[in-house]
Amino acid sequence: MASVTFHGGVGEIGGNKFLVRDGDTSVMMDFGMSFAAEGRYFSEYRKARASNVLVDMLELGLLPRIDGLYRRDYAEHMGLGWTEEPPVDAIILTHAHIDHCGYLGYVREDIPVHCTKASELIMRCFDDTGKGHQLTELRTKFAYSAQSKRPWTRLTGDRREREIRTMHSGRKFRVGGIAVEPHEVDHSLPGACALILHTSGGTLANTADLRFHGRRARATDRFVKRCARAGIGLLLCEGTRISRGPETPARTERWIEKEAASIMRGAGGLAVCGYPMRDLDRLQSLHLAARSADRTLVVDLKQAYLLALFEEHLPGTYPRLDEVGIFVNRGSWGLIDKGVPDEALERDYDKWKQDFLNHPSRLDYRDISAGARRYLYYCDDFSLQNLIDIKPQKGSTYIRSLTEPFDADMEIQERQVKNWLARFGLIGSSRRWHQLHVSGHGDGAQIRRVIEGAGAERLVPIHTERKNESHHRAMHGSVTSVRRGRSVEV
Ligand SMILES: [Zn+2]
Question: Is the overall model pTM greater than 0.90, yes or no?
Answer without folding.
Answer: yes
